[in-house]
Structures are given as C-alpha cells and as structure tokens.
Amino acid sequence: MLLYKIFIDPFVQMGAAPDLLVQTLWEGLVAGVLYALIALGFVLIFKASGVFNFAQGIMVVFGALTLVGIYEILVRWGISQENVAAFVALGLTIGVMFLLAFGVERIVLKPLVNQPDIILFMATFGLTYFLIGFGEYVFGGSSKIMIADQLYLPKGFIDLKILGGVVSLQKIDIAAAVIASVMVTGLALFFSKTRIGRALRAVADSHKAALSVGISLDQIWVIVWFASGLVALVTGIMWGARSEVSFALEVIALRALPVLILGGFTSIPGAIVGGLIIGVGEKLGDFYWGGLLGRGIESWLAYFIALVFLLFRPQGLFGEKIIERV
Amino acid sequence: MLYREAGQFKTNYASDQAIFPILQDRMGIAAILLVAFVVVPYFGNDFLLQAIMIPFVIFSLATIGLNLLTGYTGLLSLGTGAFMGVGAYACYKLETLFPNVNIIVWIVAAGFASAAVGVLFGLPSLRIKGFYLAIATLAAQFFLQWCFVRIPWLFNYNTSGAIEVGTHTLFGIPITGPNASSTTRYLIALSIVVVMTWFASNLVHGRIGRMWMAVRDMDIAAELMGIRLLPTKLLAFAVSSFYCGVAGAMLVFLWYGGAEADVFSINQSFFILFMVIVGGLGSLLGSYLGAAFIFILPIFLRYVPPHLGMPILPATVEHIAFMITGGLIIFFLIVEPNGLARLWQIAKQKLRVWPFPY
C-alpha cells in the first residue's frame, strides 16, 4: 500500500491530469530560475575570490529594500512622475550596490587576505548581520510593496488551453525568466569577450599567477561583488514582485544553497541547471509526494536531493574535480 | 610581576605535561571556580542568574561541542541547533515515559540520542568536505526541525506543539519547572558544564584529540599515518552532538522551562558557530570567551544605552545592536582571526616577561 502510494499513485495522478503536471512543472521552473539567480551571485564571488558569501541572500533583500526605500523618499520629495521616480531610484540603487561592493572590498576583504576560508566565511556572516541592522534602521522593519508597475513589469495571467485543461502562467514569471536569461547571457559574454572578463577568469584560476601578470585583485573583487550585487538586485525585484519585500525573504538564500552544492561552487552553468533541477524537484515532490509525509517537506527536500547527488560527485555536477595532495 | 614561573621546578614528566603547568594558572582556575560556584549564586540577583549566567554556561557547553567538531576535527557543521533540539526532545520523551528517574540522568542520557543522530548525519563527511559538508549538515538542520514540528509523538500530541517542563526534584529540592529557584538551576547547569569541560579537556589532550587534530590538519596525511578516517570523524560527530544534545536539554529544562521547534532553528546554529569562531577555533577556553562575548554583547547593547539616559526607541536599539554585532564580528576577525583565546595567550606571554620584554 505504501509502495503503491510512493511509486505508482503519483504517476497515475500525473497521467490523469497533464495540465496540473504542466502547471506544477512551470511553477518549479520559475522557482528554479530565481534559485539559479541567487546561486549565480554566490558562484561569481566564490570563483573570483574563494569567499563563500553568506551575505548573498541578504544582499537580495537589501537591494530590493533600498530600491523601494529610495523610491518612497523620491515620491515624498515631490517627483510626481512615478515611472521617472522608479527609474531614478533604480539608478541610485545600482549606485548603492556599487558602494556596498567597494566598501566590502576595502573594509572586509582587504584586511583578511590570506586568511583561512572559514574566517572569510564568518566575515560575510558579520556582513549579513550588519546589513540586516542597517537596512532595518534606515528603511524600517515593516514589509513593503515592490514597485513592479512603475518599473513597467507586466502583471496578470496568460491562460493556455492545452492538454484538455487550463495552464495559467503569470506574466511576471515570464518576465523573470526572460530577464534572467538575458542577464546570464550578458554575464557569459562579459566573462568570455571582454578584457575584464579575461582578468576575472585568470583570478579564478590562480590568485598568485593573476597578480604576477599585473591584474589588480582589488579592482577585480570590487567588480565581482558589484556584479553579484546587481544579480542580487534583479533577484530581489523579481522575488519582491511575486510577494513583498521584507527580511523574511532572507530564507530564500538558504533555499538556494542546495542548488549551489548540486551545481558546484565554481560553475555558472551548474548554478543554472542546479537551480532548475531543485526548483522542479521541490515542486513536484511537494505536490505529488508531500501528502504522504505531511506538508512543508520542501524545506528539506532540496537538501536531500543535493545530498544524494553529492555522494556520487562530491564536487557537484559541474564543479572542478578536487585534487588533493599531501 | 606576579605571573612568573621562576622557581617552579618540574621534577617529573607528569608535572611537565600538566594542563596548567604554572602555579598561578592553577590558582586562577581555582579562583574562577570559587567565584562561579560560591560568589555568583550567593551575591547574584535573579536577573544576573536567569538572564545571563544560566544561558552563558549552557551556550558555553554547546560551543565546546561544536568546537570539538569544527575547531579540533576541522569539520564545519551548521546543524548544531538541530542536534541541540534532538537532545531537548529526547530528554522530554524520556522524562515523560519514565517520570520516576531523576531528571539529571535524563539530561545526560539525552546526549546519547543526539550522538546517534549526529553519527547518522556525519556519515557523508567521509566523502564530502569543506563548505560542501557544511551545506550537507544543513540537511540535518532542516530535516530535524521539520520533524520537531510534524511528528506529534515527539511532543506527546500537545495541541500547542510545544514541550513543557514539569517540576522535578533532587533531594527534595525542585530543580526544574516553575518552582525551581534560579540559583538551584544555575548550580546544576554549572556542575554539568564543569564536569563535561573537564572530560572534553582530557579528551582533546589525549590520543583521541591528537587523532582529531591530525585529521583537521590534513586528512590524507593522517590516513597515511594509520588513522582510520571514518571512525575518527564519526567519533567527532558523536562526541560533538553529545555535548550539543546535553546543552539543548539543559536549555529547555534548566533555562526556558518549555520550548517550541523554533528555538532550534538555523539561527541557533549560526549563533553557536559565531561563538566558536570569535572565541577561537580549537580552544576550550575560547569556547567560554566566545559564548560570553556573543551572548552578553547584545544584552549589554540593549540595557546600557537606556541606563545612560540616551533616549533611544527599543526597535532602534535592536537594529543598532544587530549592526554593532555584525561590525564587531568583522572587526575581531580582522584584528585577531584566531579568536579571543589567542588574545588571551598573547596577554599571558606579555605578562610573563613583563616588565622586561627582552
């Protein structure tokens, strides 16, 4: 009976209602895109500086919160055109993210060069706490509404009639997927075609070798933190438009960690594929198998999926093979 | 001037190998124990004991537990909160199933349940290393926390979903529950922590501790020297979870008097990890210093500014406390990445040669 419920019943359900299956898959993919974006921010920093940036999740929230906060201030100052205010706020927020990257490099990373990884990891914890306190102090602790309309983000549904049923797609999700792919393509081009991109890859390969051919580590780190700050901002806007902007969003960073170990810490394609696998797996698992165990299994299911993969490939799906020498 | 080893001759091997080879150190430890056992409970008021000292000793124990794993064996774990939870829930189940056995027995026995769970989640550590392992232990954190909420057997089908602590006595004196005075609970907690610290000290100075440190420094080299990795790593997980489990049981039974699953969330894990790193990786003294620093700092920030007459809103204080905590963590890591324990060592060295530093 239990075996039937685990191995047969869910598939019967899938076959009986293909539109529901497609709907679930779609939701999984959308969640996966957002996970992938967060994981991308982690990977960028880890590749270039070997820092496991725990603050990535809070950077997402901080970016979104800053955007909304600045927008509200601008409106209060009497900028009547909402759209203008929104885009000015966006520009200013990008400036804030740059300042953040610059400050982190100057104040946190530079004095800690050559320390063990775990120390740098802890330093990003300190950064997390600082950003939480700072964000709440400046913008208040209450949750805010993302200014999605003012940024011309679409809303509403598209209903597709397929497979004898209706699959409704939220327009904001489609926009998120499109923007995410544009951004990933842009980053990939940036990494492979530009001079700075080449320098970034050199730093990722070896800090010492990069230094010896005259690449400035300071500069590279600021760029990398700024890039992942931008990724965080976009993620924050997308996620904020789906729910609301508050520090509760912080938990999504924890959701994105299994994506990271699944894809490997050092691989951008890994982050994307991993994100999609985890997103789809989570939604399918919760929808079709969740009833067996009680709801809420998505909080740990992703970790178990990732753990199983890890037992076979300890460096993640796309990670570089770990070579150890005595 | 006072801290000088001149004139203290070591005439046998044992005295040379002692943990506190200098007389002043031994006197210092005795003085600290005297203060902790006599002066604090005798002169301390309820606020000091309940809000500061009891949680401080309990968190110190949890920090020692994580330090054995992360500091001594080099295995990064983010599941401490959940292992503490296992201890608390195991203690609760044992206490309600066998109410006649003394509660202190169950607090310690709960550690074994936690150790078993720790071994189970430590199994991947042979193949997975570094940050990958840290995230793998997050699986334990989230899975166990989910269990605490979703398996009603664990909290005896309470409608509230919380565990509550009844009154238990030792020699006729209530030691848990609402009737127990904070002095009694403090003394019980302190005794358990002191005994377990002494045990941990013996462990890390002996063969097992050296095996752990060899694995930490380089596990391949350790393996070549004949240390079997799997038993060593699993033993570290077991002992560490044991300590965390006891700390979790004490947290609920001797401090909160009742708890929900939220207490053992991921934040608790991070909190303990902070204490380990700020105190100093691989140092028992550091565990105490780290626990004191991380636990008492927010309290200090919350209570001191209003007393100085600064009119600050409570919410603002909370935010600023967060900011300052984060800032101080970064500051400490930059100033002394090896933690407070290292600062203490430097101070001791300075004292020894003072006033002629050459």
Key attributes of the depicted protein:
heterodimer, A: 326 residues, ABC transporter involved in vitamin B12 uptake, BtuC, two-stranded antiparallel sheet, 12 helices, globular, B: 358 residues, 71% helix, 3% strand
Which sequence of SSEs, written as H and E, runs from N to C of chain B? HHHHHHEEEHHHHEHHHH
CATH topology descriptor of chain A: ABC transporter involved in vitamin B12 uptake, BtuC
Average predicted local confidence, pLDDT of chain B: 83
Largest interface: A-B, 51 and 47 residues
Quaternary organisation = heterodimer
Helix content of chain B: over 70%
- Radius of gyration of chain A using CA atoms only: 21 Å
- Terminus-to-terminus distance of chain A: 52 Å
CATH architecture of chain A: Orthogonal Bundle
Specify the CATH class of chain A: Mainly Alpha
Class by alpha and beta content of chain B:
mainly alpha
Helix segment count of chain A? 12
Structural class based on helices, strands and sheet pairing of chain A = mainly alpha
Instruction: Give the DSSP E fraction of chain A (strand runs of 2 or more residues).
Output: under 5%
Average of pLDDT of chain A: 79
Which range does the strand content of chain B fall in? under 5%
Identify low-pLDDT runs of chain B.
Answer: none
> What letter string, H or E per element, gives the SSE order of chain A?
HHHHHEEHHHHHHH
